[in-house]
Design goal:
416 residues, mainly beta, five-stranded mixed beta sheet, 32 strands, 0% helix, rod-shaped
């Protein structure tokens, strides 16, 4: 039988009774690592003496075998072998088991992280140092890919147990992934058995068929078709997707203004579209220069699974400061009303309310308002907080942007 495995070979000895006309010698054979070849390492060793084996590498030859040769000159009495032995230092035995492997999920979307928790045991007779572990995946029709490798920072003592966590994030097409955990994959550590060093598990990656959604904001607000926007608006387009894979490939995103593609960088390499990608959400930001008139913005997007969606909106630009569509609703009103209007550019807005004979009763300072549709509420009270009487009131909406000023006068009717 073979002897080992050993972490260090020490010595060998054979004890025998040798008759006057007899002889006995023995050889030491070593099994090459990772092969079935036995090499002769010592020959003709005499019995009843210790023989040093310290120069035999246990890494090169983890197992030894003894072979004895018996001779009888008169063929009447043969040598008698009483015992033989090989002294060596013991080895660890690292082991993993399916019973001690847990997955956070066994069916996920591509890009969803799966946590593998496993227990590593040393059931051998010596500590194991610098233990390495690899984690790999195989998808049908593909080669095995190692996605993680770690080396334990401390030796694994005899009868010890080590808890290990590893994150696996599948990518690519749907299908079953075969995950393999290998302890000491290069077979560097001599062990009692290598049969318990490999562990497998399966993870089903399911298809993502949900289209992403696209939300577009002009200077921080969504707009409807035909609305006014600034001549140099900050446009933010956020793509929300159920897939956790962050989309960072600009080839999956197309931005068109009036049918012309807006590149992410200029011909001179200056960025003009920024992309901030996080799992499940990607946001684009750009500030185009727009001429007066009607425009169309189109955004086309594909997620990592190939699901596509698009967003289109028409809008108008008027570079001069103007107040448009000034009115209040409801009108007549019973208790309160809301002043509504469109701004062609950002402006500081205030509303002055008068009686029909010109007496100022209230000033509402709305502050800086953005381009497009705006609303300013009025509670139907004067500057002192008193409820005003029934009747007709005039209101003047004033918009100021630097030296540019616009104002519109309208009337509101209170009927309780």
């Amino acid at each position: 039988p073979r002897i080992g495995a050993a972490s260090r070979w020490i010595s060998t000895r054979a004890d025998a009774e040798i008759p006057p006309n007899g002889a006995l010698s023995f050889n030491v054979l070593g099994l090459r690592r990772n092969s079935m070849v036995w090499d002769t390492l010592r020959t003709g060793l005499p019995p009843n003496a210790d023989h040093d084996l310290g120069d035999i590498s246990s890494q090169a030859y983890p197992y030894l075998r003894l072979r004895a040769t018996f001779r009888s000159m008169d063929r009447t009495q043969s040598p008698g072998l009483k015992s033989w032995q090989v002294l060596h230092d013991p080895v660890p035995d690292l082991a993993v088991s399916p019973a001690f492997l847990r997955l956070s999920a066994d069916s996920v979307l591509s890009g969803t992280a799966v946590v593998l928790n496993l227990e590593l045991f040393n059931i051998g007779l010596a500590a194991a140092d610098s233990v390495s572990i690899t984690f790999s995946e195989i998808l049908a029709g593909s080669e095995e890919r190692t996605f993680s490798r770690l080396t334990l920072g401390r030796p694994v003592a005899t009868d010890a147990q080590v808890s290990i966590s590893q994150i696996y994030t599948p990518a690519g097409r749907p299908g079953v992934r075969l995950l393999t955990v290998r302890v000491d994959p290069e077979n560097r550590i001599n062990e009692l058995s290598e049969a318990n060093n490999v562990l497998t598990a399966r993870v089903q990656v399911v298809a993502d068929t949900v289209k992403p959604t696209i939300a577009v904001f002009f200077d921080g607000r969504p707009i409807l078709n035909g609305e006014l926007v600034a001549s140099r608006p900050l446009i933010e387009a956020c793509i929300i997707d159920n897939s956790p894979q962050a989309v960072q490939d600009t080839l999956l995103i197309n931005i068109l203004i009036d049918g012309q593609r807006l590149p992410f960088t200029t011909a001179s390499g200056v960025p003009q579209v920024t992309l901030e990608a996080t799992p499940g959400k990607s946001c684009l930001r750009f500030t185009p220069r727009l001429e007066d008139g009607a425009h169309t913005l189109e955004i086309y997007f594909a997620d990592a699974s190939g699901n596509t969606n698009s967003h289109e909106v028409d809008f108008r630009v008027i570079s001069a400061l103007k107040l448009l569509q000034v009115l209040n609703y409801p009108n007549p009103f019973i208790e309160s009303t809301t002043f509504t209007f469109e701004l062609t550019q950002f402006a500081n807005v205030s509303i002055r309310i008068y009686t029909v004979n010109g007496r100022l009763i209230r000033i509402i300072d709305a502050g800086v308002l953005g381009t497009g549709f705006n609303q300013v509420p009025w509670d139907g009270r004067d500057a002192e907080g008193d409820v005003i009487a029934n009747g007709v009131y005039l209101y003047r909406v004033l918009a100021q942007n630097g030296e540019h000023r616009e104002e519109v006068l309208q009337k509101a009717i209170l009927m309780r």
